[in-house]
């Protein structure tokens, strides 16, 4: 499975890293903590984008 860092996800979605971290903390975007790092699976980013487009 392909995954992205918080930085890569922020660049992909044209958001700042803090916003991505807030979305993960609030449960709007799934993130997997591996040690001190957070990884976001590509499928979870796709789901997040779809939910945002539905609103």
Element layout with pairings:
Layout: E1 3-5, H1 6-13, H2 17-26, E2 32-34, E3 37-41, H3 42-54
Antiparallel strand pairs: 1-3, 2-3
Helix pairs in contact: 1-2
- When the domains are counted, the total is 1
- Based on DSSP secondary structure assignment, what is the total number of beta strands? 3
The CATH topology label is Arc Repressor Mutant, subunit A
Widest sheet: strand ordering:
1-3-2
The helix-and-strand class reads alpha+beta
Main β-sheet, in a few words?
3 strands, antiparallel
Name the CATH class: Mainly Alpha
- Measured as a percent range, the helix fraction is 55-70%
Task: Give the radius of gyration.
Answer: 10 Å
Tally of DSSP helical segments: 3
Separation of the first and last Cα atoms: 28 Å
Shape: globular
Helix/strand order: EHHEEH
- Which range does the strand content fall in? 15-25%
CATH architectural label: Orthogonal Bundle
Low-confidence stretches: none
Residue-averaged pLDDT: 95
List the main descriptive attributes of the protein structure presented here.
55 residues; alpha+beta; Arc Repressor Mutant, subunit A; 3-stranded antiparallel β-sheet; 3 helices; 56% helix; globular
In short:
With 55 residues, this protein is an alpha+beta fold.
What does this entry look like structurally?
There is one protein chain. Helix content is 56%, strand content 20%. With 55 residues, it is of the alpha+beta class. It has one domain: Arc Repressor Mutant, subunit A. The protein has a 3-stranded antiparallel β-sheet with strand order 1-3-2. The radius of gyration is 10 Å and the shape is globular.
């Amino acid at each position: 499975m392909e995954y992205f860092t918080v930085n890569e996800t922020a660049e992909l979605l044209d958001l700042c890293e803090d916003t991505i971290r807030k979305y993960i903390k609030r449960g709007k975007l799934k993130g997997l903590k591996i040690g001190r790092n957070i990884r976001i699976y590509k499928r979870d980013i796709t789901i997040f984008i779809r939910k945002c487009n539905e609103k």
